[in-house]
Specification:
Order of helices and strands: HEEHHH
CATH architecture: Orthogonal Bundle
Largest sheet: 2 strands, antiparallel
Oligomer: single chain
Number of helices: 4
Strand order of the largest sheet: 1-2
Distance between the termini: 20 Å
Structural class: mainly alpha
CATH class: Mainly Alpha
Number of strands: 2
CATH topology: Arc Repressor Mutant, subunit A
Helix content: 40-55%
Shape: globular
Radius of gyration: 12 Å
């Protein structure tokens, strides 16, 4: 999926979780998913724990974290 389409999966709403980036339409913080991945959780484990998420949601979280790390 193209970068622009992936980044559309992430939203910021100042009224939810103090404006932290969330997976669009869900109350799941991007930093929560990236922390799980960083701690060694497998994608399949995350998707099993959060059955309403799809692979592209995880891809978007990783891309968001990479962009944040570059100062974008």
């Amino acid at each position: 999926m193209a970068e622009d389409n992936l980044m559309k999966r992430i939203e910021n709403n100042p009224e939810i979780f103090d404006g932290k980036p969330l997976i669009r339409g869900r109350r799941v913080a991007v930093e929560h998913i990236t922390a799980m991945l960083d701690s060694g959780a497998q994608r399949s484990e995350i998707l099993e724990s959060y059955p309403f998420l799809i692979e592209e949601d995880l891809d978007a979280c990783v891309m968001w974290a990479e962009k944040k790390g570059k100062g974008d």
